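Structure (tokenized):
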């Protein structure tokens, strides 16, 4: 995934076709490093989003608007002064640099026609939006970069604008076909790295795709390539160059387990068609892709405190459990001490005064046994000492057996909450998880006097899917939903699914009294695998049974059940072709 030079070439072509000749009607700066230009003309009305966010630099057309601050920032006010009603003359990209230049014409205070440039640099942490005059002198920028910050280039009013050349890369669009193999063979590294480090504007994703098209292993060292392989990758690079020059782009995104993984301006043939979505425009691709990506990022950020609480408690309980198991193992010698005591009571008269051991017949297994003795004690006193050790270890064993079971249940409970956090897609999904942590004593409820604190309103609902045969399948997002699905929503003959032996969601198939087709069992099994700790694995064992066979033990944690009659299936966790219902 990268907003690389090829993608920018595609978006520049799109902007040329849509906004050239139109006028800027409105300028807003909703975020400190983001602009929205409202543009009107032959294209109707569109909004152009320009973001210089260090983590997510972007440029695309959108219909959505954002709320602006009551007082516009200085940079926004400056642009309004110069560019209100300015006409967009051209949109260009120097080579395959991650830079977009928008040339603008406007009338100054005297009514003279003037040219200005709005330059958008989409370079990760070095991203910026720079406003220049017709001589490429910087008037202002959304981020000021002084010599204290960068020794390569200052971005300050009055400085000359230029694109810094910090890497020795060739311009693919200006490279002759015969020069491509020379550039590649000069790189002593794996082929895919040589491709994107040898030419400006190519991302690792595109490099891997070109290697795939050339049928060459991208991890193979350039020095080990045969002449046929070198010709193959050189040909694919030349084809890409011609494709960019002709404006032949295919904006597409690749998904893995329903989550956005990659996107590119060229068709990613190295991925299956079922996991690829092609878009009409780059703007739709970028808006849709990053909306999904930001949803996942946002929910991760919102859940970071909850994850920290769960992880800390989980680590503490795992350590406690390991220690308890070790202590429990040490109590296994208790029976040995009991036998020593009994045998000493039986054969103690044979022990010589001051002896350090006594060899006797163990009447439990008819084997000779040597019993260590304390020479300072009599046989009876040694027997008493061994019985005391036995009783102490017996008490420890009984206590640890209970404690170990409790700690194991706590580890399983916390692991299930951790899985619920991975499943959560919306902020509403976090409310029930937070409530569970509060009721389990891991968090305190905020606000209000003691006894008057209120629970947050629960609006999250289970996932709802429809099978290929039309049966409704429900998936719990957390332990509370799992319990409600299984014991309040499902009826006796409904089918219940769960990943075997690992944290995961309860999956319920409503049968309506029917005998289910085999497809439904497979699809429900995939959902149980996907919404579990085994997500992404190719083989996951799933237990399934009718709901009437599922019971909740007394005092068990929310969502924890037992069942003794069940079937099993082994299936993958791919749910890409399943239809989710938005309730």
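Design, position by position:
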């Amino acid at each position: 995934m990268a907003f690389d030079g090829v993608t920018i070439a595609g978006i520049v072509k799109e902007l040329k076709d849509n906004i050239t000749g139109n006028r800027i009607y409105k300028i807003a700066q909703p975020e400190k490093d983001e602009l929205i230009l409202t543009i009107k003309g032959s294209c109707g009305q569109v909004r152009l989003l320009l973001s210089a966010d260090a983590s997510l630099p972007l440029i695309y057309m959108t219909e959505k608007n954002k709320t602006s601050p009551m007082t516009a920032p200085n940079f926004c006010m400056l642009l309004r002064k110069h560019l209100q009603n300015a006409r967009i003359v051209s949109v260009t990209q120097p080579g395959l640099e991650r830079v977009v230049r928008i040339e603008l014409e406007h009338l100054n205070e005297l009514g003279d026609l003037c040219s200005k440039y709005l330059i958008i640099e989409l370079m990760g942490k070095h991203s910026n939006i720079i406003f220049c005059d017709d001589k490429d002198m910087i008037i202002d920028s959304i981020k000021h970069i002084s010599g204290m910050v960068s020794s390569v280039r200052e971005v300050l009013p009055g400085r000359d604008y230029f694109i810094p050349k910090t890497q020795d890369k060739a311009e693919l669009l200006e490279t002759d076909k015969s020069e491509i193999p020379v550039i590649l063979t000069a790189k002593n590294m794996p082929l895919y790295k040589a491709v994107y480090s040898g030419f400006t504007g190519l991302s690792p994703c595109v490099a891997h795709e070109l290697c795939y098209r050339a049928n060459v292993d991208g991890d193979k060292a350039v020095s080990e390539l045969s002449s046929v392989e070198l010709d193959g990758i050189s040909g694919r690079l030349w084809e890409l160059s011609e494709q960019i020059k002709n404006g032949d782009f295919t904006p597409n995104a690749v998904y893995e387990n329903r989550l956005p993984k990659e996107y590119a301006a060229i068709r990613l043939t190295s991925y299956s068609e079922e996991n690829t979505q092609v878009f009409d425009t780059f703007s739709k691709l970028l808006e849709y892709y990053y909306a999904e990506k930001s949803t996942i990022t946002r929910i991760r950020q919102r859940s970071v405190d909850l994850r920290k609480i769960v992880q800390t408690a989980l680590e503490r309980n795992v350590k406690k459990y390991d220690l308890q198991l070790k202590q429990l193992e040490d109590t296994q010698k208790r029976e040995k001490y009991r036998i020593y005591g009994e045998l000493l009571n039986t054969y103690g008269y044979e022990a010589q005064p001051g002896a350090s051991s006594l060899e006797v017949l163990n009447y439990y297994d008819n084997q000779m046994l040597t019993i260590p003795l304390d020479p300072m004690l009599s046989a009876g006193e040694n027997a008493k000492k061994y019985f005391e050790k036995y009783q102490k270890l017996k008490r420890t064993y009984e206590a640890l057996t209970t404690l170990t079971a409790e700690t194991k249940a706590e580890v399983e409970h916390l692991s299930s909450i951790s899985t619920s956090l991975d499943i959560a897609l919306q902020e509403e999904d976090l409310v029930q998880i937070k409530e569970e942590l509060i009721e389990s004593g891991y968090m305190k409820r905020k606000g209000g006097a003691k006894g008057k604190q209120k629970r947050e309103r629960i609006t999250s609902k289970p996932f709802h899917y429809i099978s290929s045969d039309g049966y409704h399948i429900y998936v719990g997002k957390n332990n509370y939903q799992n319990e409600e699905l299984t014991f309040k929503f499902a009826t006796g003959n409904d089918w219940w699914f769960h990943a075997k032996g690992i944290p995961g969601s309860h999956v319920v198939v409503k049968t309506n009294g029917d005998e289910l087709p085999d497809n439904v069992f497979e699809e429900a099994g995939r959902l149980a695998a996907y919404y579990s700790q085994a997500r992404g694995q190719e083989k996951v064992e799933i237990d399934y049974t009718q709901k009437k066979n599922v019971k909740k033990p007394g005092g068990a944690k929310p969502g924890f059940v037992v069942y003794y009659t069940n079937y099993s299936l082994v299936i993958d966790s791919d749910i890409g072709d399943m239809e989710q219902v938005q309730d």
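Reviewer-requested clarification: The mean pLDDT is 89. The first strand starts at residue 23 and ends at 31.
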